[in-house]
Amino acid sequence: MKLYKLLSLSFLLATLTSCTFTENIYINDNGTGKFSVDMDGSALMEMAGDQIGNQMGANAKKDIDSTFTFKQLFAEKKDSIAKLSPDVQKELKKLENFVVTTKMSSEKKQFLMTMATDFKNVNELQDILQTASSLQKLEGGANANPLGSGFGDNKSKLSYTYDGKKFTRKAVIDQQKLAAKAKDSAADMSKMIFASSNYIVKYHFPKKIKKVSNPNALFSDDRKSITIQYTFTDYMENPDKLNFDVEFEK
């Protein structure tokens, strides 16, 4: 299946029902690690997998187990990218090393998608989710973001810091963009679509955690991992609610 066709199919599924989005960060002793966002839309396949297969044709009836990089996608769209401004091209380049994996089966009632990349330092992840919204600027790219149109575009600047003693996740809201979004009728549609979706963060560290500023954090047995669940509405409308600090034992 062509990459763009697969992305369009995934986008349509992602916007038809509630999904669970999970943001994962794994940090090693030396500060390197892996970042990923997982989307689980299996609830839709459970409810209407057969009907979706019928509506979308033969390809959707078959099980999909696909992996590609954005670098491959950009190679397909190189002529379109060449027409974009240098700033947008620079933004897209940040996504080159992301690997996108899709698993979909109407028989197994499964629809899973993961966007993942390695990093040398968490600082490299500055605004990485917001960068994904730049995919819409590709020619015919309205559905190019595999996690759904507008995902990551929650009108904030997101940053991560880690120095071995403390980890911080911080989103700073852009008030001007937020005001413009409030006037956008499409925002009401997005709010309705994701009203029952969840956004979960799962972070894994090389050291034991002393404390977390969010009281809802759940610890793993070894106290090296935390899980915090939010509503997707908070992620989109109140991204600063997802801010927190983690302090580690000496």
TrEMBL record:
Residues 1-20 form the signal peptide. This is Lipoprotein. Keywords: Signal. It comes from the Bacteria.
